[in-house]
Amino acid sequence: MQSNLSPLNNINLTTLYSNMGFANSANKNCQEAISCFKIVLDLQSTYLLPNDPNIIRTCNNIGTIYRQLDDYDAALETFTQVTEIERKSLPMNSFEYTKTLNNIGFIYCHKEKLTNALHNFEKALEIQLTFTNIQPEEIAVTYNNIASIYLRQNKYDLTFVNAKKILKHCPRVHKLLEGNTIFGFKRLIGRKFDDATVQADMKHWPFKIINDNGKPKIQVEYKNQIKLFTPEELSSMILANMKDIAEIYLGKNISKAIITVPAYFNYSERQNVKQ
Fold it and tell me: At what angle are helices 136-152 and 114-128 packed, to 10 degrees?
C-alpha cells in the first residue's frame, strides 16, 4: 500500500491502524491484526527511515501475532528481519535487541531446534548482564529460558545451575520460591530417601525434603501448619486441579484421562504414578 497523502495524514493513519491492530489482537482476530500492522508498516515506510525504531516495533507486533497463530516459519522470518534492522539502527547491547533474540529463541523452541534456541537465549543473556539499569525480572526470565532448554535436553546439572541464578538475580523471585514453592518433585516418585539421585537433587532445591521411614517427603507450610506430602500426593493435587480447570472450560464432567510419564521412568516410578 503506497500512500500519496501528506506525512501528517500518514502519521494519523498509522495511529489509527495501529490501534485497530491492537484491538483485533486483543479480540483474537489475529489475521485482521496482521493486516492492520502490515498497513502500518507500509505507511511508516513513507515518512520514516528504514531503520527507525517505530518500524522495529511494528515488525515485532507482526512477528508476535504469527507466533500466536503457531505460524513459526513466518514468525521466525519476521523476527530475523527485525534483527537485520536492529543491527543497522541500534547498538548491539540494546534492550530491544535482547527482546528480539528471546523471541527468536522461543520460535526455535517450538520448532524443536533446541541448540539454536539456546544460542539466542545465551546471546540475549550475555548482553543483559552488561546493563546496569535492567529490571532483575528480565534477567530471571532469560535464565529460565536457558534452564528450560537444558531440562528438555536432560542436562539436569545445567538446569539447576541456571535455575539457581534466577534466585541470585531476582530477590523477589527468591522470596517467592523460598521454602514453600515446590518444583521438579516428580524426580522423587518411586525413590527412597537415601537414593543417590534424591540426595543430589536435595542440594539444589530451596524446599525441605524429610526422611519419613525411608521415604522422601516434602515439607511445606499449608493452612498455617507444617505438613509433609509425598510426591505422589502432590501430583494427585495437581491432577485434581487440572481436572477442575478442564471441567470448567468444557462445561461437563471428566471421568477419564491419559497420564503419561517420562520415558526414562523405571518400573517402580511408573507403578507409583499409577497408584
Answer: 160
* Mean pLDDT taken over the chain: 82
- The fold of 185-272 is Nucleotidyltransferase; domain 5 (3.30.420)
Q: pLDDT for 142-152, tens place per residue?
A: 888 898 888 88
Q: Write the pLDDT tens digit of every residue in 209-240.
A: 999 999 999 988 766 788 898 888 888 888 88
Each domain of the chain, given as residue ranges in start order, spans 7-134, 185-272
| Topology (CATH) of 7-134 | 1.25.40
pTM score, whole prediction: 0.57
Span 145-195, pLDDT tens digits:
898 888 888 888 888 888 878 777 666 555 555 566 787 888 888 888 998
208-212 and 215-222 strand pairing: antiparallel
Name the residue among 185, 198, 98, 184 with its Cα closest to residue 148: 184
Distance of CA 85 to the CA centre of its chain: 25
